[in-house]
């Protein structure tokens, strides 16, 4: 394996609180190792266009507390083509990059895997997504902060729901994973969470109506995963209630990109720092084409193809827990 002297680091996909803490950790751990660090701006688009600048210890000072990503992120259709990846690799050679660290979600790591296989370059993935949907790691960077943001918002919406005797359907992010919806429902004391993983064949809305509306309750909060695959978001369920149960006053609140922003929590800062340093240590050990993750509070190495292809299961006990607590 070629000796590593210079690494490249990029953030890709949706931004997640804690990405800057991870960039900081990667940069400082690499410099500690004696390596140069090249920051690739705007994700794979920057790799394609050559928007690459050296990072120093000073470059990442005071960034641990910042949301978003100082390296920025963007879509790059060109990187999805062979010619586009060839151009990206020419920039890898031009800037003397010997290994690549990619901080992002499922799509970002999928792109990293293709690039690594085509051009035999060591790649380490770091799970940075609020969705927490990557297999092999208990948590992803940004998930804890997003969860706290959702709970804070739901607490405020509960005040209005109680004042007006309303059912609120609150839609949260998560792509095709219900981790944010399920956990925020438990933490905020919601009456139900409608998530794609609850695929028992039962009508989730009917179950909620039958058990969640009680004479003792003058309002209800239902957290809905955005679930773009089947289109059953908050508006879908609200329309059904208005049609099938017209006696209820129903409102919808879609939290949207509010969930992505904000100062990262201490949990995300620590996780990002640990994973950033672990990525450099993995490269130093000769690892390649793996994602660094966390399991039982220990760093783990997961083959990228497993991380992106295998479904991460939700704990079914949590679904039962919410049912018990929502009576």
Write down the CATH class of the largest domain: Alpha Beta
Strand order of the largest sheet: 3-2-1-4-5-10-11
- Judged by helices, strands and strand pairing, the structural class is alpha/beta
Determine Rg (CA atoms, Å): 22 Å
The tally of beta strands, per DSSP, is 11
Mean pLDDT reading: 91
Secondary-structure topology with pairs:
Blueprint: E1 6-11, H1 19-33, E2 36-40, H2 43-49, E3 52-55, H3 82-94, E4 99-104, H4 106-119, E5 123-127, H5 143-164, E6 166-172, H6 179-188, E7 192-194, H7 204-212, E8 220-225, H8 234-244, E9 249-254, H9 266-284, E10 290-295, E11 298-303, H10 304-309, H11 316-325
Parallel strand pairs: 1-2, 1-4, 4-5, 5-10, 6-8, 6-9, 7-8
Antiparallel strand pairs: 2-3, 10-11
Notes on the structure:
There is one protein chain. The protein has 327 residues and is of the alpha/beta class. It folds into 2 domains: 6-142 and 264-309, Rossmann fold; 144-260, Phosphofructokinase domain (Rossmann fold, 3-Layer(aba) Sandwich), CATH 3.40.50. It is built from 11 helices and 11 strands. The chain has helices spanning 19-33, 43-49, 82-94, 106-119, 143-164, 179-188, 204-212, 234-244, 266-284, 304-309, 316-325; strands spanning 6-11, 36-40, 52-55, 99-104, 123-127, 166-172, 192-194, 220-225, 249-254, 290-295, 298-303. Strands 3-2-1-4-5-10-11 form a 7-stranded mixed beta sheet, sandwiched between helices. A 4-stranded parallel beta sheet has the order 7-8-6-9, sandwiched between helices. It is elongated, with a radius of gyration of 22 Å. It starts with 5 loop residues before the first strand and ends with a helix. 49% of the residues are buried.
């Amino acid at each position: 394996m070629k000796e590593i002297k210079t690494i490249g680091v990029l953030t890709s996909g949706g931004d997640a609180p804690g990405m800057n803490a991870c960039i900081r950790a990667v940069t400082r751990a690499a410099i500690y190792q004696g390596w140069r660090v090249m920051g690739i701006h705007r994700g794979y688009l920057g790799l394609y266009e050559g928007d690459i600048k050296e990072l120093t210890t000073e470059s990442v000072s005071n960034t641990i507390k910042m949301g978003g990503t100082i390296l920025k992120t963007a879509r790059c259709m060109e990187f999805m083509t062979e010619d586009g990846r060839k151009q990206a690799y020419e920039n890898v050679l031009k800037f003397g990059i010997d290994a690549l660290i990619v901080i992002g979600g499922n799509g970002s790591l999928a792109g990293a895997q293709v690039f690594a296989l085509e051009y035999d370059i060591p790649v380490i993935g770091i799970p940075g997504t609020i969705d927490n949907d990557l297999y092999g790691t208990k948590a992803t960077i940004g998930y804890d902060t997003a969860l706290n943001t959702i709970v804070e918002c739901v607490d405020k919406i509960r005040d209005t729901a109680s004042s007006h005797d309303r059912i609120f359907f609150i839609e949260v992010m998560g792509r095709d994973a219900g981790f944010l919806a399920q956990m925020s429902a438990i933490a905020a004391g919601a009456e139900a969470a409608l998530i794609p993983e609850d695929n028992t064949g039962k009508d989730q809305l009917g179950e909620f109506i039958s058990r969640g509306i009680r004479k003792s309750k003058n309002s209800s909060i239902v957290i809905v995963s955005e679930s773009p695959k089947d289109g059953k978001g908050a508006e879908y369920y609200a329309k059904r209630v208005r049609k099938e149960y017209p006696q209820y006053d129903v409102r919808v609140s879609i939290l949207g990109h509010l969930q992505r922003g904000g100062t990262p929590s201490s949990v995300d800062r620590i996780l990002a720092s640990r994973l950033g340093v672990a990525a450099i240590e993995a490269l130093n050990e000769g690892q390649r084409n793996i994602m660094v993750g966390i399991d039982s509070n220990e760093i783990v190495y997961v083959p990228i193809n497993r991380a992106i292809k295998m479904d991460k299961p939700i704990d079914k006990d949590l679904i039962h827990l919410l049912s018990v607590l929502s009576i």
